[in-house]
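#struct-help
A.M.: can someone run this one for me? Single chain, 342 residues.
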Amino acid sequence: MSMTRRAFGALFGVFAAVPLVAVAPAARAADPVTLLNVSYDISRELYKDVNPAFSAWWKAKTGQDVIVNQSHGGSSKQASSVLNGLEADVITMNQSPDIDILLSRPGLIAPDWREKFPNGAAPYSTVSVFIVRKGNPKRIRDWSDLTGDVQVIVPNPKTSGNGRYTYLAAWGYGLKQNDGDESKAHDFVKGVFDNVPILDGGGRGATTSFAQREIGDVLITFENESAALAAEFGADKFEVVYPSLTIAAPAPVAVVEGVARARGTLEQATGYLEFLYTPEAQEIIAGKQFRPSDAEVFARHAETFPPIDTLSVETDLGGWEKAQQVHFADGGLYDKIMAERR
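D.P.: on it. Structure tokens below:
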């Protein structure tokens, strides 16, 4: 009798397992695919709008549900998190060094990541601008006004691409005003950073210090932050000042292929970044006051983006590799300037 029961139990176990094996793959196939986009902090509102638009686009195209999750912070900290194991399917940054750093872990991203998508894998760009309080009480018009009796709010160039662009824009302006004299450019940038009372870790932290904590007379940040400030605090609180010279900030993107392959999301992650170049996504980008790469979309929003004289890190300042080594490496010019501050 006991043998019969054991045999029956074993037989029952076999039959009980059969439906589970049969239905489990179908159940898994019906579950939404999830992606993680690791990005810099002031792109938060942009991707909040991009993500559901992509999900609808992908569903219409493939019939598959995809949910995109977001992670935001200072760009260099975010890149380091991915390098150290944060399972990002895609990375969307504001400077190429924060993607190139992932090359130090073989297999994480493609060595030719810039060639994977149009426009050097930058679906949009922005520029650095000044944001001042309504009425511009300190009459701040250009970089030369930042060395006087003003407080300047910028994010930390060591942890923020936004901060690096600000520093390099000031450096480029100092070079231009002094016929390429690097010693005088050094003194000019020091004069600006002498007036920086705090250094937040990222662009959004700097915006919070300026707008909510009411620290400083001028915030130097990306152009799109003016729209975020107007939405949160009202358009009557702040003004945007375009200096005579600023810096162009392309926003590069890449699939974190090592993670996406392991998770089985390579197709969806690639599709997500391809979507950023569609007219639909480019319209969302322009609506958030980032400069779209699509010429037709840009033309439709031209009144939003005043023409401005810009520097390029790659063509005017020796490229990012040189900038990293000369200015931002430990013991570089930025560290020396901070050590010399009064």
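A.M.: thanks! The chain has two domains: 32-122+252-277, 126-248+307-340.
D.P.: also worth noting: Residues 1-29 have pLDDT under 50 and may be disordered.
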